Amino acid sequence: MNSLQAIGRNTIERLSAVGRASILIFGAIFGRFNLFKAFPLFVKQVYVVGVLSLVIIIVSGLFIGMVLALQGYTVLIDYGAEDSLGPMVALALLRELGPVVTALLFAGRAGSALTAEIGLMKATEQLTSLEMMAVDPIKRIVAPRFWAGVFSMPVLALMFSSVGIIGGHLVGVEWLGVDHGSFWSIMQASVDFQDDVLNGVIKSVVFAVVVTWIALFRGYDAVPTSEGISQATTKTVVQASLAVLGLDFVLTAIMFGS
Amino acid sequence: MTSKKVEVLVGFFVALGIAALIFLALNVASQSVSGSGQTYELKAKFSNIGGLKVRSAVKVGGVVVGRVESIELDPVDYAPIATLAIDSKYDNFPDTSSIAILTSGLLGEQYLGLEPGFIDETVAILKHGDYIEDTKSALVLEELIGQFLFNQGSDN
Fold this sequence. Notes:
The complex is a heterodimer of chains A (258) and B (156). With 258 residues, chain A is an all-alpha fold.
């Protein structure tokens, strides 16, 4: 009887968490807000989640592109196909690594910060005081952060891919001596703007929604103690990363499967 | 609330993002917007198209002049017919031209090599919808090996 009750309570808790998360995202997306008041808040959050993530994105993009070129070269040279290094690096970055690694880094760099910030606001009762002043915390706190995340991540993913391709060029062409012309021309012949670049952007928008949503909900729903905030931050990073990797498989199967 | 420095940095961030998109569009992806898209159609009937695909290139002397638009089987004799979209700039191929399915490199992609024929008063120019009569099908490795083995056997 007790174990049955435990299962039931668990299910109800999970379902109500899904419900609260849905209410949160619904309020953030469809809440009507004054554009002139909301825009400065949005810009501030783009600075916090986007601009401040630039360094980690660009450095990791550069190194991942360089490593891809190095590893690809050692395999391709055996078949005399080192000219195909360009498309290999570009397609791997644009289709998979750009959106996925950006989302993982974003979850670690910006998502955890969002959770901790909102969780601490809740713990110090700032959210309650906002409500006391008749300011809707979802409009004032959650919505700008959500839109800033959704806007920033595709931009970051594009930069990641570009810098990665430049990194691949540095290692492949400048260091290992793949022909400059064939590196770029074969890349251009096999990369399609719509199929590869735009699908990568779509992936990255989906990841942005999911990661930002999880981060905001975990913060908003955190137990308002120091332990609760630390748990919420951990949950954000773990759940967001798993969601990104799982969704990536589904999206890849839909986009490039057939 | 929003300081000037933050706004400048966000503007820089957006500009960098746009630059990345332009870089990817122009330098990495293919320029799919090739010309004004003014093309005309030619058709060619093969007995075997091998690994030819839709969007494979049609080349004259190595220069891409068009792409394969569609591939379908003739409803009567089940021979594959490739429809080619040729750039209207190149509209002066005589009907003595020949077309062959070639492979770029040993393992590369297959493409169509168009060879312009001679022109004199009796030769017509290929127009929209015309068939190129002189076609050479793809080399299929298994058939070649089969032929080779057959010849070897008949020698003994």
